[in-house]
Each structure stands twice: as structure tokens, then as C-alpha cells.
Amino acid sequence: MTALARRHDFVLLFDVTNGNPNGDPDAGNLPRLDPETNHGLVTDVSLKRKIRNYVDLARGGQDGFHIYVEEGAILNEKHRQAYRALRPDDKKVEDSKAKLNPKDDTEARELCDFMCANFFDVRTFGAVMSTGVNCGQVKGPVQMTFASSVEPILPAEISITRMAATNEAEKKQRAEGDDGDARTDNRTMGRKHIVPYGLYAAHGFVSAKFAERTGFSDADLELLFESLVNMFEHDRSAARGEMSTRGLIVFRHDSALGNAPAHRLFERVRIGRRVDGAFREIDARLDNLPPARRFSDYSIEIDRDDLPSGVEILEMV
């Protein structure tokens, strides 16, 4: 496949209703927050995980679309696949305890090329593959920022109960109670954190120059955008509530290096509150509006006037 020839930048909009889009394990799984503004955060790693999961569902088992970073994977064993392909007669390759390194720069390039050709997420996001069985490092053409909620969020802590006991001892303990009095239920208490509603925006960058190095193609770009549109449809869980992609606005350049700075293009996407059917800028100092609880509470505007030469806007959602 021919590598991507044009630069792309994109804005991803998604929302969450009564769920936790990205819990922080260092804060009791509280939804991630900017501590100064209380805007919600979703890490780039979380978004990339969802993309990987979708690609695995949509293209699982197909050559060229294997996933490098997956749950339970032993990365060195994946590196070893590259050495097997390049050194079919080297017995050291089959020694699981042996460290392996490229013999020269040519083999180092061939090892990286093998990993890029076989693993979608390596040629897309890049990877550090120098962990004992050394396949080098690859800088991926696709990079994403943290997603941030467009307004501050106020997470809610919800009490939950469980009727069943995990074992006989727990059942007996809960039946008798700490004071020895009889009880009639097995209820255990727990807590979950939710965001009642939040609209999040993330920015993404696709470098055609780095795509030349990894082989990331136009077909890969189409699959990436397909993943961004559909990734929440196959990531349902009780913890995450209801999450949906609400917008994917792509700025496509005519050249590999690009025709305008990304930040200037992103400024053309304006998110405001919908008040009496009209757009209203979000300003915490002036707003007296009730908290948003649905996507229709917001209005999205895209400034298409006087676009830089060589840039076009594509709305995928």
C-alpha cells in the first residue's frame, strides 16, 4: 500500500451520560479532572485503547492488522516474530531467554518495517520496541491530545449494593452481623463515580511525513476515522454509562507538510450553548444557564470562510 501523501488534523467530539469516561486509579477511580478548572479529562492512551479494540474487532486476524499492545500480550514474543522472519535458521531466536539485537543498520530497518507492516497500532501510533528483544523505536504518524470537557463537570458518587456474598464465610458474617444479631440480607455496599453529562473534545494530528516511514496508508486513515466514529459502540459497560461520538471534523491539507498551522484550524470549530435556538459563547463569568444534560444543549459552529489555500474541511459525523 502507498503511504499517506497528505497531512490531516482533526477534532473529535464525544459525550458521556451517567458514566465514567476515564477513571483515575490514583484517585479511587474518580473521573479524571483538571484540578484548577474542574474540566473533565480523558487520556490519549484511553482513546487509543478504544481504537485498537475496534480495529481488532473489525479486522481481527487479517494480515497487517494485528494489534501490538493488547491485554496479556508479551511484547518480546511479538518482537521475536520479526526475528523469525529475518533469521529463519538462527536457533538463538527460539531461545525465550536470549536477548536479540539487530546485526546492523540494514537489519534494524528491516525489523522495524516488519513490525509496521504487521501491526496496525505500530504503524499508526508508533512504539518503543527495544525491550530485550530489540526491534527499535518507531514514531507514529498519528498523535492525539487528552480530551477535555468543554465545561466544568461535577462528578457524582453513587452508592450501590450487592445482594450476593462471595463465599460462605462472608455470607455467615453478614447474616450474623458484627454484634451477633441476626440479619436477613447479604447486602454489601460499594460506590461508583459518574459524570451526569459531559461533552469532550480532543485534537488529533496525522503526519504524512512520518507515514512515509511506517507505511501508514490512505486505507489505514479510513480505518482510523471509522474507528473514531464507531469505537464507543463496541465499548459499552456499566461503568462508562452511555458514550457516543458526536463529531469528527477533519482538516485535510493538499501537501505532506501541511498548508496551515493546526491550532489555527482548530480555532474554527466553536462549541457554545444553544439558547433559544441560537449559539451562545460559553463564558463561566456570564453564564446563568442550567447544567447541560444532553448534546442538544450545545451548538457546534465551523467557520468555513477564508479557508487557507490547500485546506478543506470534511465532516465525518
Question: Your description of this structure?
Answer:
- This protein has 317 residues and is α+β, with helices and mostly antiparallel strands.
- It folds into 2 domains: 8-151 and 193-315, no CATH class; 152-192, no CATH class.
- Helix content is 26%, strand content 32%.
- It has helices spanning 44-59, 75-86, 105-118, 120-125, 168-176, 208-214, 218-230, 262-266; strands at 8-19, 23-24, 30-31, 39-42, 126-131, 133-139, 142-144, 147-152, 156-162, 188-206, 242-253, 269-275, 278-280, 298-302, 311-315.
- 29% of the residues are buried.
Helices and strands, with pairings:
Blueprint: E1 8-19, E2 23-24, E3 30-31, E4 39-42, H1 44-59, H2 75-86, H3 105-118, H4 120-125, E5 126-131, E6 133-139, E7 142-144, E8 147-152, E9 156-162, H5 168-176, E10 188-206, H6 208-214, H7 218-230, E11 242-253, H8 262-266, E12 269-275, E13 278-280, E14 298-302, E15 311-315
Antiparallel strand pairs: 1-10, 1-11, 2-3, 4-8, 5-6, 7-10, 8-10, 9-10, 11-15, 12-13, 12-14
Helix pairs in contact: 1-7, 2-3
List keywords for this structure.
single chain, 317 residues, alpha+beta, 2 domains, eight-stranded antiparallel β-sheet, 32% strand
Major beta-sheet overview: 8 strands, antiparallel
Low-confidence stretches: none
Indicate the percent of residues in helices: 25-40%
Mean pLDDT, to the nearest integer, reads 92
Tally of helical segments: 8
Instruction: Please give the radius of gyration in angstroms.
Output: 24 Å
Number of strands: 15
- Provide the structure class: alpha+beta
Shape: flat
Task: Tell me the domain tally.
Answer: 2
The end-to-end distance, rounded to whole angstroms, is 27 Å
What pattern of helices and strands is seen along the backbone? EEEEHHHHEEEEEHEHHEHEEEE
Strand percentage lies at 25-35%
